[in-house]
Task: structure prediction
Amino acid sequence: MLVRSKKEQDMKVEIWSDIMCPFCYIGKRRLENALKEFQHKNDIQIFWKSFQLNPSMKTEPGKNINQYLAEVKGWSMAEARQANEYVTKMAKEVGLNYDFNKAVVANSFDAHRLIQLAKAYGKGDEVEERLFKAYFTEGKNIADHETLVLLGTEIGLSSETIKKMLSSNEYAGDVENDIDEASRIGVRGVPYFVFNDRYAISGAQATETFLGALNKAWGEWEKEKPVHSSST
Result:
């Protein structure tokens, strides 16, 4: 799991991602691996940000993900399958098991509202991990409210709180604000990582790239914030 801290002195890392983005889950793992090697990992605070690759996507549980990709990308079915096989292999290299044969074509907006709710309870990383696994490995419909309630309760949120949120427009503005912010800073795709408001990495880059960004951003942050808690 990514290191989450509530200390005001922590250096900030922001991550824009979408649940249905296969590279976002891979990027999460690679950043986690970089943090394992980072000396000051306990002084890093992660902020998850919402992003939708296709805001107008219709939830179609019966549609094969290869068919969906072929339609939106203008690919043949063979090209779509080949692309998913490539990503599946990439995911396997960081210990993730993707099953695109079970993946459900679903709009992620309400899943992002659940993420915003979880963030309010200090469970942003937990809900990101659970939703990624649900989508890419378990073939769950991340637009289905009953499914979202179940996934949310698994990470410790109240089922009543989740149901109340989903039955309203709560946290929709937070999702839209994150997406608007991404547009303002020039984000064109995800995952997108911003270290200490200065250094950005686009895509699921190598662990070494993330580690380099952490070290560079930390060096500057440390000079600006000389008083901070020590890592353990």
In short: Strands lie at 11-17, 44-50, 192-195, 199-202. The chain has one domain: 11-224.
